[in-house]
User: Fold these one by one.
Assistant:
Number 1:
Amino acid sequence: MVLVAFLFVTIIARLIYIQIAEGSTLRIKALDQWTRDVPITGERGDIFDRNGVLLADTETLYTVYARPVSVTDKEYTSRVLGKILGVDSTALYEKMTSKVSEITVSKKVTKAEMNALMDAGVEGIYYSQNLDRKYIYGDFLTQILGFTNIDGVGQSGVEAYYDKYLKGTDGYILTETDLVGRELESNVTRYVEGSKGNSVYLTIDYAIQSFVESTVNNAFLKHNATSTACVVMNAKTGEILAMAQRPSYDLNDLPRDDIELLFSASKSALISNVYEPGSTFKVLTAAMGLDKGLIDTSYNLYCPGYRIVDGQKIKCWRTIGHGSETFAEGVQNSCNCLFMDIALKLGTENFYDGLRMFGINEKTGIDMSGEASGLTIAESAVKTVDLARMGFGQAIAVTPIELLNAAASAVNGGKLMTPYIVDKIVDNDGKVVVQNYPIVKRNTVSAATGSIMRKILESVVSEGGGKNASVPGYRIGGKTGTAQKYADGAIAQGMYVSTFLGFLPADDPEYILLFIVDEPKGGAYYGSVVAAPYAGEIFSKIVSYAGIQPDYYEEKEKFRMPDLTGTTLTEAVKTLKQLNLYYEMSGEWTEGAKVLQQIPVAGSYVTEDSIILIDVG
């Protein structure tokens, strides 16, 4: 009796455990045995520009399957499927009559084909939903948008960074079947609807991005460059308005057979690569010197073409020197001697404090994966000669976005912003689930320093090396840059990075851009000749698009460029000055040096104040 009672209690306890503790799990297993479920992938959210221009969406496609055990008239079904889906009906009939449990009839079936299939009333057919990501403009915002893998998971760019917001919630279709998979006559198909992902709105302006894309591509082709890139940012808020680079590729046709191109062109060089900035860095050196009160606009200097620092001769880019200069003229001439003087007056501690204040060696915090930070010599290891070189942009490396953001703070009143790509994220009900706002990280320079910097940099475009970035009637500020590249620890001969950093309007900057041409070929390599004209082209389109009224009206008379080739350098310079033409020189100024070639070539139309490149030897 005790044994029977024990067994009875044990059985009761087991039944209670099965019904309560494991009931939910067992019900799921039972449902799985008696139903067939077809997953329906949740549609990925769309991506728009700041004005609602659609940049990326999802096309719904289907994969059609057949279960031969559920098909009564296999010949008819094979014939209908063949006609609607364009498959071989004979081969399909052979599969239908073989001993297979399931057949994949066709993939990438359109919605129209699915509707035709439903209207035909064929039996034993079911389907799964597939989503194909589509990028509306192909090779456009390639590095910003990024791409997804075959499963619809973001792999790069915004697609990866904001994947949890963009991905949808999966649904499924449940069909009651018997043990061999045939639908039951009493079947009630259950459809569990998925949901689409959130919509992402970028800070990018489609129109400005279009201007930048075409200009970057033109520069890449014209100069046969290793790469070209440009970023346009709102100087006041940190919103990225455009960002493009070449080489690139079509997001709808990923170069999966060229892994090197896929990986190199997938990351944004503007946030992931570091480079020696050259003269564009002088904007920060000047701002640091002014803000510390160690130098002012009344400063005068003499440039013999070099400075001797720690017993080493460090050359100015113009080896014959600029002679006597004011502070403004030194900035206009991009005189290395001026910026060596400022760096040495600052000293290592003040200089490095300034770097930290401007965010150099620090990620900007832009909402994209893969951001790098600048590289500098350890402060404790800096020698005086290193400090002098850093003053004019050598012996230091930055990311383009880091430099642009720091320079923006030098002219916007001293506010170092956090750049950002995404403006807001909106759910399917129109509710804003994420809203990004301008964030001021810290103040870098005083408002007074910013005012001086704006005026000085405006004079660089109106009177100095940045003339080619000018737009008639508009006040533009900026700084050119020409940096040598290094290979195996030594200067690589003939390899340069040509840049232009500019902003508009000069008195109250809203648009600030950085244009980079890496290793231009064909002789010209100065930033003033190679990069500045493209910046001017972009600015001219922006003012037209944004409806910015000109500050003044000016018409310059065009005339034909004279032929300087074969003349002595002295004669050529005299001619250029008489014509009010600004010149950049490639080569050494030596006695008897002659002009070997010129850009623009003889006979080209130029205007007063144009910049001419002369190659001497």
Number 2:
Amino acid sequence: MGRINLLDPLLSSRIAAGEVIERPQSVLREFLDNSLDAGSDDITVIIEGGGIDKLEVQDNGKGINREDLSLIAKRHATSKIHNPDDLYQINTLGFRGEALYSISSVSKLTISSFDSEEKKASTLVIDNGKRYPVEETGPEKGTICTSEDLFMDIPARRSFLKRASTESNLCRTLLSSKALAFPSVRFTLKVDGATRMQWPKAADYKERVMMLWREYGVSSSDVNTLNMEAEDYSITVVAGSSAVKRSDKKEIRIYVNSRPVEEFSMVQAVLYGYGELLPGGSYPYACVFINDNSELVDFNIHPAKKEVKIRNKADIHHSLSSMIKNGVERKIPEIKSVRQFYLDDTERWENGAKTKSFGVLPPTTPKVEMEDKKEERVFYNHNGTEAPESFEDRSNKYTPKDSEWLKKAKELKALREKVRNESYAKEEVKAIDEDEIVYIGQAFDLFLICQKGDSLYLVDQHAAHERILYDELLSLKTVQKLLVPIKIEVDDLTDDFLERNSYVYTKLGISLLKEGKGEWEIDAIPAVCKGIEKEIVDFITSAKSDEHQLEQEIFAVMACRKAIKKGDKVDKWAAESILEKVFEMEEPCCPHGRTFLIKITEQSLKEMVGRTK
């Protein structure tokens, strides 16, 4: 007897389902894709037991008619493609007809829908592959898709699922990711009967992305929207400035034709674009939305459609990197109080028409409406015995008898303010000019502190001086001849490199002369580099960069070695000279790209200490 046999259809369907449905998050992804393809602009997600017990998506889309509902969830049943050529012109999120079929193989799937054209409602139930007749009942609008008891008949698969709270969080993460790409759709998440997240409709990508980024303390004023259009594609980037950064790449999000994808080359393009705007080890906030010609992309390479092939990837990569490099601004980081953070944001919480409820709440005390009823309280003396006075008696006792007391108190306060202001007016107070830099002192032998206008500034003395020296080196003011030339020996590879690029060092003020095979000497250096000859030699014997990078690197090295260090005492005159040059810079950052200036406004300081005036 042969050892090969045909698998039972139910068994084969469950094996196939494992490629598409891994956990409740996978079910939610497929339900959301169908709702969005149906033109929904209001979607509610209901989760119970982490989505394992129940996961439901309600939408207000165009619905499914009864005839189509009888075919739905059969293998490869889809309305998205009809012939092989359609695979190369896919403009929908779903298209293979595998999702609902897979879900119905591993759970109890219920689809209730109202057909907006025929004005009829229908309901289909498929319990782990067993289909029931379509019933003439359902919602009054849209479609409701429900998955219950996921993997109940496959205990081995169910045992690999996480705790309910973990699965719920994974679903929430997915919903957030989907919501970013569809700002015109309202999303609501309910977990075990409680509303956990609401994403109202937004005007554009930036407004929608800020609903997420505010949770990380990012302000709208630190975020810009960049746009570009080419013949076959368009790109929109919601990009954080240099004032906001992370220690990981989680908020570099890439979307291609409204699908979140894992595309390393596009993440790389984003990082290239930011370049030295951020210090080493820091990553930006950036959401990239790419709309490419559907004929030039292929999503049919991963069951979950997480990966994509892009024919014009090189063009998009270059465009993305360039638009970020030219469009993202460098901003001076500003320390704000919590209240000031919300007041400075463009979406003000006080504006009733724009009140948001997506996880971040304004720092105000909520109003609680109490029932209008008398409350009896028992008061105790200091020795523990009950006091005879009731709550009402005690309240009445301390209530002012004069009904005009509030008005009189306000008049008295106004009078005191008037007297105080008049006395201040008589004093001669010299105001600080808005452009005047007032040096205050040095902190921790590292930060120079000054006041300019209504703001306080902290300046990293080493990075600031390093940048000043770097700018001086670039201008090549003076070159100093060495009384005793410095002789250096190099290997064959470096010898060949120096023969081809010695002119670059000459342009930088470093005179290099070849004495023999592998033997060179330096007979002149920039005057500002006196004292760091050893560092220059070390750089020359190891550098293998191109001309542009070589210039940047050696100047950065020379400036870094020559600059004031952390721990150095800086006198008042040197500090004032550094500060004057700092405020003349268009972009205050060191040669390595690190911003060395921090701003604190007077208003923020007052709010931090609770001062109202």
Number 3:
Amino acid sequence: MSAPRPAKPSADGSDAGHGFGTAPVFLASISTILGAILFLRFGYAVGHVGLWGSLMIILLGHLVTIPTVLAVSEIATNRRVAGGGAYFIISRSFGTSIGGAIGIALYLSQAISVAFYLVAFAEAFEPVYDWAAFTYDLSPDPRWVSLPSAVLLLALMLTKGAGMGVRALWVVCAMLGGAIAAFLLGEGPEAIRPDGLNLTARIDSPDSFGLVFATCFPAFTGMIAGLGLSGDLKNPQRSIPLGTIGATLAGMVVYALVAVKLAASATPEALAEDQFIMSQIALWGPSIYVGLGAAALSSALGSILVAPRTLQALARDKVSPIPRVNILLEHGAGESQEPVNATLVSGAIAIVFVVLGDVDFIAQILSMFFMVTYGALCAVSFLEYFAGNPAYRPTFRSRWYLSLLGAVMCGLLMIQMNPLYALVSILLMVGIYLGLRRSRRGERDFAAIFEGTMYQLTRRLQITLQQNRVERSDGGWRPSVVAVTRFGERRLGHFDLLRWLSHRHGFGHFIQYLEGEYSFSEEIEARLQVQKLVERTEISRAGVFVDSMICPSFQLAMANTLQMPGISGLPNNCLLLEFDQDRPEEVTEIVDGARLAMDSMFNVLVLRSTKYRFGYKASIHLWVTEDTIDNAALMLLLAYIIVGHRDWNRAEIHLFACFEAKSDAEREKDKLSNLMKEGRLPISSQNVTAVPHSGGHSLETEVSRRSSKADLLIAGLTADEITLDGTATALQAYQSANDVLFVHATQAVSID
């Protein structure tokens, strides 16, 4: 066999590669799938859960593996896949911070897997151990085989490289295929044969299905082993889909055939007792030991091929905080850029764990890391589809629901296998991610990942809301408030009130008005203003959308604002304006805006702000008069929404029914109390007070006496006070109060 011709170096110089075709991808994957568990533990599975249960394990396992290989194939055909395999795909889709966290876990899994497979390889020599014990009275240690094997395997990789590794894969895979064929064509002895094929037959007191599944699931996780050769492939866009999908489907068929053959050839008791039961069934018993050795050795070969390439890709992305380490590990030898230093490190890790021997705890943690990797690959495919990014144009298409199924199944199976280890794995990866983020600020992170997804979700929700808009009942009213101001930087009260009103129950749109003619320089200034407002929303944790508007006049800005569609997908229904109590010259402009909003059927909210800035946020007083009784429902709802914010969680609402006749005041007080009770508003009837008065002077006196220390006063505003009184003296009322919110309900709002 001629050696593969080295590929040309990539444009970025990151990979040169061997120029392999599809076969090495298939061989590396299938040799890892058909590993030691097939020979050592699948008889145990059939014995404990029966043939039907074993087929269910195969099906459930492939509900993870098939979506994963489809997702890998899709992502691999969207962009050039360089060295690093699964790590490269994840890091180029999620960013190097998230990719690095997953890549480190993936690399450790691959490196330590070499040790696991070599320990299994040593078990294939069990007949030799028995012979040595019987003949020479020796007690051989399996490490007598596994440790020299690790050294020889490392020497092979260092001296011959991936080319020799791939040629060796052909040999061991041929041996593996021969062993499986010998088993499928064999027939077990009469003593252990069952009476026909029984789908549900199993031993008494079997292990739980979850435990058996957790034991066997790692058998299916080798389907992306061939990805580690991505930088050595001549055409990865073709070889990765063909190789990984072919290996996954072939492995599923082989496992199903082996399960059926085991159930048909031996009783559940025989299957559960002898881990080498396959040797009794095969045409030639020793072929199973040869097959086990070939399976373990081929899996070890696949892992020692891909682990150094993953580490080399990590080093090229400067994942290590020590620059010198990155330089050493990214170094490649020859035209094929063979990862010599990374192979040494990977081999050293494998040898350490071979010497330690007992790695059960770490093995379960690493199984979780594999699951996280597969879940991440499925999530990438799903998010890329959902985001609708026009740059995502794979030539191979999976289905978004399959990718979503794979991601969900990975999470569920992690919990099923071991919730504690799943938690430990996730915490370790979160710690690595946070460490990488400290040195990689400005790079892609979780916010960037979900940006496209959030864009699509928002677009679809807005369209759905608009298409399904219906006449809403009065009890379903919620505030959709748009606020306009000249003083976005200098007046915080206006912004604070909007964020309280839009908290949880409503939606707020804050617009910074800039007076002038539109130009590029004005646009730059507007963007700077918006950025400052965005920073304010982050600091205050406000759920408010901020924007800017450049117009020659405030009146024109108001006209444009009132025509804007609601950002939430629902139409705006309230306009919030603000003026400073110490600047009466601002009132005229505010009145003009309020008049235009009322004519456009907007509810009008006008905040008269002071330096008091809502004080301790402990009390809200509502004043309802016979002229403003129609605004009472909206005033009550706004007060209820405000006190629902955490800033006002200690606040009490007091309502004053102020009428000229005492009997009218008492009657309206009772009506308002019943309204709040039926509307389930958390306002005590003891906080509702009837206040008789005569004339405006008496009203001002009562407000001064009862509400001068209130943190916010809410009062009604009539249409005549907006349209007929150009000076809007009503906005100058309640001079003894602190901050005052004037409310005019243009829409019919009721409390149900």
